[in-house]
């Protein structure tokens, strides 16, 4: 199964040249201001992609998704899956997705570090094969340009505890790329750089 990973497109999704694959994954921040109009524009575009299956989560910019979810939109096609602390199994591969990020509530899906955000990661099933989050785990592809790490400590602990094979995320634009710390492959799939330019190609990964 070929996964095509993108994220942090911030209303610029139509500018991306997306390669073919079996599952297209968006790791959140598909809007900039998080409005209903922006969200609908993304959903229409995403649903029309030719990939056999499509999975997306929200990010800290996607305020309308936190407020209303999918309740105010037409029903998604059967090949499109929105994950909010939940999972889906596709052709025998188990995916799990969550939009939450550490924060003080200023942004969408913010949760306090420690016990509050840990309650979300504790929901990740032990048999998850592909974890999709908006936030990176702490110290992995999460460093800002000022060298400060802002990923989630509790997520790092949970991924390590479960020994997950693959973790895909975004949020930190300038740390795009792949790294492997056995047994987990980590992918930061941010499509824009820290100046909101398309310098990052979709990342392809085979599972």
Automatic annotation (TrEMBL):
MF-aspect GO terms: hydrolase activity
Top-level taxon of origin: Bacteria
Classification via InterPro entries: Calcineurin-like_PHP, Metallo-depent_PP-like, UPF0046_metallophosphoest
Domain Calcineurin-like phosphoesterase: 1-174
Annotated PANTHER family: CALCINEURIN-LIKE PHOSPHOESTERASE DOMAIN-CONTAINING PROTEIN, METALLOPHOSPHOESTERASE
Protein name per Swiss-Prot or TrEMBL: Predicted phosphoesterase
Organism of provenance: Salegentibacter flavus
Source lineage: Bacteria, Pseudomonadati, Bacteroidota, Flavobacteriia, Flavobacteriales
